[in-house]
Amino acid sequence: AECRVIKHNPQCSCLSGYTGDPFAGCSLIPQIQPTEGPRTPCDPSPCGANAVCKERNGAGSCTCLPEYFGDPYTGCRPECVVNTDCDRNKACSNNKCRDPCPGTCGINAECNVVNHAPSCTCIPGYVGDPITACRLQQIEPEKPKNPCQPSPCGPYSVCRVVDSHAVCSCQSDYIGSPPNCKPECVVSSECAQDKACIKQKCSDPCPGTCGINARCQVVNHNPICSCPAGFVGDPFVRCLREEKPVTQAPPSGDPCVPSPCGPNSVCRAVLNSPACSCSP
Length: 280
Hints:
Number of helices: 0
Radius of gyration: 64 Å
Largest sheet: 2 strands, antiparallel
Shape: rod-shaped
Number of domains: 5
Strand order of the largest sheet: 1-2
Distance between the termini: 164 Å
Helix content: under 10%
Order of helices and strands: EEEEEEEEEEEEEEEEEEEEEEEEEE
């Protein structure tokens, strides 16, 4: 026992681990050994994660939790954690591989799973937003086509609609047949010798070319102006009757000797008649 003075008075008490009357004698407290209970094979659990241990005939047996898979002694896992754990036509939802389509697409739409993701499209004959709703496509009646638009006739041609068909013809003043319409001429060499190409038509080049009392002859598509016999002057302006006495034609028979042409002109014999033209 030990003694302590508290407020001038001695106080006796047994030491730690002893019991009894501290004024008479303290004795050692006997140590009671705990009795070992029966051991259980599931405590501690020999199972891995997401597995449970069940005792059977004094032995522990591990099984995976419902909807978990794998080795229960090392660890069980859910069916999936990410989409790549599932087939390409499934997606991982709440650790389960499921079809992601139900409830995804709108009315009159169809769903296809592409790489774990749902893809919505309107069914044939319907248009709109496949996520919300697709509506029946309104087919507008096809407008009648104009057979002359674009024109099938070719250049320099006219297209007319006759009984819903294109009828082609060449423009006025053009020759040939579509699609090969062309002007009557482009250059004078395409015309007869006594014609010239004027505004894409073979025409007589003489009208309005020569002067008063002058005559015009077409030579190689060109108009040749000359004063007639007994007249002198500028055939492109005016020919005047010659007042001098008529002289006998020279024995040579050349109508250009003497020259009936004016100054700066050239005389040529055409069909035994003088033909005057300006000097080059």
